[in-house]
Specification:
The complex is a heterotrimer of chains A (299), B (568) and C (451). Chain A is mostly beta strands and 299 residues long. Chain A contains 4 helices and 19 strands. A 13-stranded mixed β-sheet of chain A has the order 5-1-6-8-9-10-11-12-13-14-19-16-15. Chain A is elongated, with a radius of gyration of 20 Å. In chain A, 53% of the residues are buried. With 568 residues, chain B is of the alpha/beta class. Chain B has a single domain, classed as TIM Barrel, CATH 3.20.20. Chain B has 17 helices and 26 strands. In chain B, strands 1, 2, 3, 4, 5, 21, 22, 23 and 24 form a 9-stranded mixed β-sheet that branches. In chain B, strands 6-9-10-25-26 form a 5-stranded parallel β-sheet. A 5-stranded parallel β-sheet of chain B has the order 11-12-13-16-20. In chain B, helix 4 packs across helix 7 and helix 5 packs across helix 7. Chain B is globular, with a radius of gyration of 22 Å. The two termini of chain B are 39 Å apart. In chain C, helix 9 crosses helix 10. Classes of the chains: A mainly beta (299), B alpha/beta (568), C alpha/beta (451). Chains in contact: A-B, A-C, B-C. At the B-C interface, helix 1, strand 7, strand 8, helix 3 and strand 18 of B face helix 3, helix 4, strand 8, helix 5 and helix 13 of C. Strand 18 of chain B pairs parallel with strand 8 of chain C. Bound molecules: iron/sulfur cluster (SF4) and zinc ion (ZN). The site of zinc ion has 9 residues of chain B, from loops.
């Protein structure tokens, strides 16, 4: 595998659209060809070379290419969009659409990413070390075919609408999730290791949600069926199984309706946390609110 | 206006009986002429095919349900949008393209006239605003009558003259082109969540049957002498076993004679017959009944049809057949939009994926082609996809390929997932006929133009006719592959619309000089109908009578009104 | 002798009443009296007669004061603003006609603008929900003629759409509804005990922000499944009872407003309300209608739809149309500082946008094209006053149920004042001239993201 490194050298005055930056976009090209590739800011087209320094070289195909992007990428959109193979590492925070519509390969975002990461995803692994925005692993507007396959792993928190219209694949959130996880899901699996907010599994047709933390308001359309042992990261945990959403249509197998499954960990231990930890969390929450003061969860 | 000479192409023009002869076509001041001066601009069409601009007889391309389809399907535009280049507008969408893209795409394929197939009169302004913004092609719209309360009441009481007077009034108010009927009675029943599945199901409250509505509207249409005949989408669309309803509907036209000064011969145009030619009684034993349907059509010259070919794409279904769309969403669970329109009609929309891996879809595909191939008179069977219902109109070149090449359709047929079952449930495999260029010109030009009462205006290359001309980069006398055929018809080498070059080398170069067609039918003064109209607006409509008629340059900047005098 | 203009449309709320009669002065310049309109509608007509109205463009000076400039100067400033911008936002469009909207779109295509309408702070979530699950709906006349169950959710027509109840939904006698309001069951769901709720047969006062849960509960009840004891503060018996009323109707309708579109979950609430409607169609006939606010916000969505394929928030910056609320919506663009100029057209974001967005508007080059002074004009670099649409000029407008009506001109605008359509047309033509003189940078290709 060959590595090509792109370092942003000039802060975009608006936002830069750089969907060309992916193993697929760069593979098989010479340094000059790469520098001449188009990126966009508003109604203007620029060359990649005007915004990025280039080191190394890509492989002949996406599979043989590793792309490393560094510098302040917080105003760069579409990094790794539609990547189908190879490897890509985003060294800092990035803006919207990281790994959108990706179908293969491994994409690691080391910082936070904004909304629409991994939307329409079909395959591959998208790892986000920081927090992710709204609509992570969701469908594009109007499409009933959301995430189909692959895996998204968010090590921080996610905002609202994770796995909207999810059909397959897996999303793992190490932190907390805001409202509307797995809404309209018809397949796939979502694991939330932190806490969830209301609307968890709302309008869910099929698929699985596993919650290790707490949920503040349960959906009225989920009913408790039994306790089950569930394997999470190789550990068996005792969980309560709820099925739903009872308000939704469900196909039947052998006369029995197939429901969405919601597992909630039994008596999640209320961590006795120190005052410092609580205050630090409150500070973070305030900061998050400030970063996006008025936009609530969904659009 | 300038003069043009299209020199030395292989010309196919059923109107003047020219079948592939090498000929020059001359254009002056927007019309086809015998000859032009030496200063005329010359296009070399040697080795190319020349036909009149094609005429679309049935497509849903403008108005409230088309736009709801656009607005509620952003995913139809995802990765499918382009900037406007060279003075053209920006475009987008696949199954429900924007108005600009609609005009450009028709023009690119050599289509120069189109009829919007279902205009809800209360929304006529919307239809006309979209028509105005659809560049290049001349366009008319058919208001729907088959569930209109005035019509139901007049026909229940067998008041022919009042029905005719009301039609004339509504055509003027909505600036409509002719009489469209969709699921007669069934759409009114849908106001209560019900339907009429046969021609004899009574309409709730109105105490009339679909059969009475259809016969009454044919009679009124001929009483007025309108350019187009009554244009119907029958009851029971899309259901296994519905071919009997279709035959029952065909028979309703028996005994009527076409009465008009436009040279139209049919008294009924039945649209998208593919959706109405189904045998079996479940999706399991679903099969083609195209033979029984086409036998009737072949032996009854009072009838014209269009095919409604399934193109095997993901598309957006939309129809004034409200109960059908509800039925469809119950089957595929995709997003359902519906609008019931006070006193007039309804409409529904549901996305649909015609997958080659699904047996029923493949059978539907075959039925559409069978109709085109089994029809004995290409002047009475026209190619459509009921855009966007069976597929987008942009697939016409592919349908042409399948109709003109047995090899191409056999290849498709044999690679279906359930090929054997599909072959068993259809006739297509046994049909050898390949449509000729001349027959294609009949099915897409001369035929539809004549059925619309426009045979002296569109669809031909005889001197005096509109200079709507398409030149395709395909040599009918040299060998070509089926795919070359599809390619050639996808992007015309040259298109002239009303004397103006609008497409060159497959690229749209001009926004054209589009006109809006409508029919101005004069009848004797009819105070009773006017009283009824006033009363219904006062009591039941949610807009005032004075705010109903479509008027003004901002709706119809370039009208082409066809005059009909039924005052005798 | 004053003259009377009949069949006038009211340019205020989305009901777009078209039976207004207006008495105007002999010289056709003043509105004297207004008949048939409700108080808020009448006020709009009478306000245009105000003598103290600004009638010429005003440019903000360094010291914050405003100086009168000519329309020519205003057109020049606006055209240059567009030509110099990399990503101009064109916001508003709900209080103008479709012809002006259409010219605005030409400017957006020419300059790479983003066009967003007031749905973005109003019924945008409804439009998103429709994209996700569709919408079974009907015209207002259908309600009048057929509906016997009428449900208002998160809206208060008694105040916001005053004639709605009498003209369309509750009181009128229609073809199959000869008993008027006596034949109709009225259900009202709202966290507040509104004046509309006071009229209800079945009032349901729910906990703030729990609309989604309650709608889900309706769906559970429709399917005859079991509910928890209380949902959103409402006992389950009441929910089952309401659903029974709905199922027993011949024709039901849900009207919903900003109470659901702008509370927690936004589009999901509408989505679920639409699904309630869809579910109900298995039992009886049911429809759902958004109570659109401004009189022609619907028209803006329609024109954008047929020209670009999206009902609001359409981004033309790369030449082709893109859409994704959360990114291409005005408040996200302003909050994220993603646009570098703004034209406010026929609306007042100064009153309706969050303060962070308003501050951003004040920072970047800005033009407000609105008839009179409003909070937005006071933060804009240039205010271009124009004739009042549907009073001083006509044009096509779309009612909340998408029915298009041609608005009438009732009186002349003040001497020398342009209509917004005239102003915009001249800006468009001036931009074309400027671009022809100095072709701007490379135009985006149609490939990549949107192609
Ligand atoms: S209800 Fe609305 S449209 Fe009707 S008069 Fe009142 S403000 Fe005007
Ligand atoms: Zn049709």
């Amino acid at each position: 595998m060959e590595t090509v490194t792109l370092t942003i050298k000039k802060a975009p005055t608006l936002y830069l659209e750089a969907e060309i930056i992916s193993p697929d976009g760069l593979a098989g090209k010479t340094a000059d060809q790469i520098r001449a590739l188009p990126v966009h800011m508003g109604n203007e087209e620029f060359t990649l070379g005007e915004f990025f320094d280039l080191a190394g070289a890509p492989g002949a195909t996406a599979e043989e290419t590793k792309v490393v992007v560094t510098g302040d990428l917080s105003r760069v959109k579409y990094l790794g969009m539609k990547m189908s193979g190879g490897e890509m590492v985003i060294e800092s925070d990035a803006d919207m659409y990281v790994g959108a519509w990706m179908s293969g390969g491994t994409l690691t975002a080391k910082g936070n990413v904004d909304s629409f990461a991994g939307i329409g995803m079909k395959g591959g692994l998208l790892e986000i070390n920081g927090n992710a925005g709204n609509y992570t692993g969701s469908a594009y507007r109007g499409d009933w075919r959301g995430m189909q396959g692959g895996k998204i792993h968010v090590k921080g928190n996610v905002r609202s609408d994770t796995g909207y219209f999810m059909n397959g694949g897996e999303i793992v959130i190490d932190g907390d999730a805001d409202v509307h996880v797995g809404t309209h899901a018809e397949g796939g699996k979502i694991v939330i290791k932190g806490n969830a907010k209301s609307r968890l599994g709302g309008q869910m047709v099929e698929g699985t949600i596993i919650l290790l933390g707490t949920v503040d308001v349960m959906m009225p359309g989920f009913k408790y069926v039994r306790d089950e042992e569930v394997d999470v990261d190789g550990k068996n945990m005792l969980m309560s199984l709820y099925v739903g959403d009872l308000g939704e249509r469900h196909r039947k197998r052998k006369g029995e309706p197939i429901y969405g499954k919601l597992y909630i960990r039994k008596a999640a231990p209320a961590a006795a946390e120190s005052r410092e930890v609580r205050l630090a969390r409150a500070r973070e929450a305030r900061k998050a609110r400030f970063a996006s003061p008025e936009e609530t969860a969904s659009a | 206006m300038a003069e043009y000479l299209i020199r030395n192409g292989f010309v196919f023009d059923p109107v003047s009986g020219v079948n592939g002869d090498r000929k020059d076509i001359a254009v002056k001041d927007g019309k086809i002429v015998e000859s032009v001066s030496p200063s005329a601009k010359v296009f070399d069409a040697a080795g190319k095919t020349v036909m009149a601009g094609a005429v679309e007889i049935h497509a849903h391309i403008a108005g409230p349900k088309v736009n709801e389809g656009r607005n509620y399907r952003p995913e139809d535009k995802l990765f499918n949008a382009a900037s406007g280049v060279g003075g053209m507008r920006t475009t987008g969408g696949f199954s429900i393209p924007t108005t600009f893209k609609t005009g450009y795409n028709y023009a690119k394929m050599g289509y120069t006239t189109a009829i919007e197939a279902a205009m809800p009169p209360l929304y006529a302004r919307h239809v006309h605003e979209e028509i105005r913004d659809t560049p290049i092609i001349d366009e008319g719209a058919l208001p729907v009558f088959g569930n209109n309360w005035f019509v139901l009441e007049y026909l229940k009481n067998r008041e022919l003259e009042n029905t005719a007077a009301y039609i004339s009034w509504l055509l003027r108010a909505s600036k409509g082109y002719g009489v469209k009927v969709v699921n007669p009675g069934g759409t009114e029943a849908w106001g209560w969540g019900l339907n009429c599945l046969t021609v004899n199901d009574p309409v709730p409250y109105f105490d009339i049957t679909p059969a009475q509505i259809v016969r009454g509207l044919i009679e009124a249409n001929e009483y007025l002498g309108l350019p187009h005949s009554m244009h119907i989408h029958a009851n029971n669309l899309g259901n296994p076993g519905n071919y009997t309803t279709t035959l029952d509907t065909f028979r309703l036209a028996e005994g009527f004679k076409a009465n008009n000064r436009f040279g139209r011969e049919q008294t009924m145009h039945h649209t998208h017959v593919q959706f109405h030619s189904y045998g079996g009684d479940t999706w399991g034993n679903f099969e083609s009944k195209s033979d029984e349907i086409i036998d009737y059509v072949n032996t009854h010259p009072n009838l014209t049809i269009d095919t409604g070919n399934v193109t095997l794409d993901e598309t957006t279904t939309m129809t004034a057949d409200g109960p059908f769309e509800h039925h469809l969403t119950e089957l595929n669970h995709l997003k359902w939009a519906n609008v019931d329109v006070e006193l007039e009609t309804a409409a529904g929309i549901v996305p649909y994926v015609y997958s080659p891996d699904i047996k029923v879809c493949a059978i539907q595909w075959a039925i559409g082609l069978e109709l085109g191939l089994l029809a004995k008179d290409p002047m009475r069977c026209f190619i459509t996809t009921d855009h966007p219902n069976a597929g987008p109109f942009t697939r016409y070149p592919r349908i042409i390929k399948w109709l003109m090449s047995k090899e191409a359709r056999e290849e498709r047929l044999n690679t279906f997932k359930h090929a054997e079952k599909v072959i068993g449930a259809t006739l297509l495999h046994g049909i050898d006929r390949e449509i000729t260029f001349y027959e294609l010109a009949q099915m897409t030009r001369a035929g539809p133009a004549k059925a619309l009462g426009l045979k002296d205006v569109y669809g031909g290359l005889a001197p005096g006719m509109e200079a709507d001309i398409a030149v395709y980069d395909i040599n009918p006398e040299s060998p070509f592959t089926p795919d070359q055929l599809e390619e050639a018809f996808s992007a015309a080498a040259l298109v002239i619309k009303t004397g103006l070059p609008v497409v060159e080398n497959g690229v749209v170069i001009n926004n054209g000089n589009k006109r809006t067609l409508w029919v101005d039918a004069k009848v004797n003064e009819n105070p009773q109908v006017m009283r009824d109209v006033e009363e219904k607006f006062l009591k039941y409509y949610s807009v005032t009578l004075n705010n109903y008629e479509v008027q003004g340059h901002h709706y119809i900047p370039n009208p082409y009104a066809i005059q009909v005098d039924a005052t005798q | 002798m004053a003259k009377t203009v009949t069949d006038v449309t009211c340019p205020f709320c989305g009901s777009l009443c078209d039976d207004i009669e207006v008495q105007v002065s002999d010289d056709g310049t003043k509105v004297l009296e207004v008949f048939n309109a409700c108080a808020i509608g009448a006020a709009k007509f009478l306000h245009t007669a105000a003598k103290d109205r600004v009638t010429r463009p005003r440019m903000r000076q360094e010291d914050g004061s405003y100086k009168e400039v000519s329309y020519d100067e205003a057109i020049e400033y606006t055209a240059h603003m567009f030509v110099n911008s990399k990503k101009p936002l064109m916001y508003g469009w709900s209080n103008t006609n479709c012809e002006a909207q259409s010219v605005g779109h030409e400017i957006a295509e020419a300059t790479g603008g983003i066009v967003d309408n007031t749905a973005t702070v109003c019924h945008g979530p409804s439009l998103i929900a429709i994209q996700d699950v569709g919408i079974p709906s009907c015209t207002l006349g259908e309600i009048k003629n057929r509906a016997d169950v009428v449900l208002f959710w998160g809206c208060n027509p008694a105040h916001a759409h005053p004639r709605h109840l009498s003209k369309y939904s509750i009181f009128p006698r229609g073809f199959f509804t000869g008993k008027g309001h006596k034949g109709r069951k009225m259900i009202v769901v709202d966290p507040r005990n509104t004046d509309t709720m006071k009229l209800a047969d079945v009032p349901l006062q729910l906990e703030q922000g729990r609309d989604y849960e309650l709608l889900s509960a309706f769906r559970v009840a429709i399917r005859g499944e079991e509910l928890p004891e209380k949902v959103a503060g409402i006992p389950r018996e009441k929910i089952y009872e309401a659903v029974e009323v709905m199922k027993n109707g011949r024709f039901g309708v849900i009207f919903f407003g900003m109470g659901v579109t702008q509370s927690l979950g936004k589009n999901h609430n509408i989505d679920n309300a639409i699904m309630v409607t869809k579910d109900m169609n298995e039992y009886t006939k049911f429809a759902i209608i958004a109570m659109r606010g401004h009189y022609n916000v619907t028209g803006s969505g329609q024109v954008m739809g047929w020209q670009w394929g999206f009902p609001f928030a359409t981004d033309l910056s790369r030449g082709f149309a893109r859409y994704n609320p959360g990114e291409t919506t005005s408040n996200d663009l302003l909050r994220r500082r993603e646009v570098d100029a703004i034209m406010v057209f026929a609306s007042d974001p100064g009153s309706h946008f969050p303060i962070s967005s308003v501050r951003e508007i004040a920072k970047i080059p800005s033009v407000a094209v609105v008839p009179d002074i409003n909070p937005t004009t006071e933060i804009s670099k240039l205010h271009v006053p124009v004739a009042v649409n549907a009073i001083e000029t006509g044009g096509c407008c779309y009612r909340m149920d998408n029915v298009p009506i041609d608005a009438r001109k009732v009186v002349e605008p003040p001497e020398g004042m342009l209509t917004d359509l005239e102003f915009l047309t001249r800006v468009r033509d001036r931009i074309a001239e400027l671009k022809a003189q100095a072709p701007a940078g490379v135009r985006a290709s149609a490939e990549a993201v949107g192609a």
